[in-house]
Amino acid sequence: MFDDVSNFVNFFDATFIVTLAVSVFFLVLITFLMIFFVIKYNRKRNPRGSNIHGHMGLEIAWTAIPTIMVLIMFWFGWIGYMDTVTVPENAMPINVSAQMWKWGFEYEDGRKTDTLFIPVSKPVKLILHSNDVNHSFFIPEFRVKKDVFPSYERIVWFIANQTGEFYIACAEYCGMNHSNMYAKVLVLSEENFNNWRIGMNKEESKLLEGITKSN
User: Fold this and answer.
1) In order of start, what are the domains of the chain with their CATH numbers?
2) Which of 53, 60, 181, 210 could form a disulfide with 170 if both were Cys (CB 3.0 to 4.6 A apart)?
3) Is the pLDDT of residue 1 over 90?
């Protein structure tokens, strides 16, 4: 956690910690009160039950405190959500196609790959669509996840802060080989990414030249 692999990691991890802390707080409080009242009002100490009148202060407290806690969690979630849907204007667009059972990536110049190559420290905009059934685009290390539907375009974006190799999974059951629907994300330095694009262009030019000569 908090490894800053992408621009969403630290905030999303902090939101998780806040939600977990609130949940643990209420778990401990409610469990303690349950045990306390079981001991205090057991049959030996209270052989005959008696009515307990309401307490305005307690009623306000157990209404106000959970409400404040929930609003805090909602605020964290809302801020994170707004970040995920606010795509920078300079983000590099890449079309992502999902089908049983693989991912495909198409760049602005028409190049297609089965591995996602992206530059480090640059915003990337993925345009998601499915060719068959529902899928879910998921990069766990980047804290990025978006459902993908047929005949419906969805957008997800992020900035990779570290170079390296990461995995893309499908997080929604999509058929028999769902568990094998993996792809790789290769985050390259800007120089290496540009070299990769140039290298791909050279390979495509050689292939086209060979086809031309053979004809």
Assistant:
1) 9-85 (1.10.287), 92-214 (2.60.40.420)
2) 181
3) no
Sign of the alpha-carbon torsion through 88, 136, 14, 122: negative
CB 4 within 8 A of CB 156: no
Question: Do residues 174 and 135 lie in contact, with contact meaning Cβ atoms separated by under 8 Å?
Answer: yes
Give residue 202's pLDDT.
Answer: 56
Q: Are 176 and 107 in contact (CB under 8 A)?
A: no
List CB contacts of 26: < 8 A, sequence separation 6 or more: 66, 69
25-46: per-residue pLDDT in tens? 889 989 999 999 888 877 777 7
Chain Cα centroid distance, residue 170: 12
Q: 86, 8 in Cβ contact below 8 A?
A: no
* DSSP states of 12-75: HHHHHHHHHHHHHHHHHHHHHHHHHHHHHT-TTT-SS-------HHHHHHHHHHHHHHHHHHHH
Residue 164's DSSP bridge partners are: 187
Angular region, 115: left φ>0, alpha ψ -120 to 50, beta rest: beta
Residue pair 168/138 in contact (Cβ under 8 Å)? The answer is: yes
Task: Give percent above pLDDT 90 in the chain.
Answer: 48
Q: Dump pLDDT digits (tens) for 102-132.
A: 999 999 888 889 999 999 999 999 999 999 9
Beta bridge partners of 102: 99
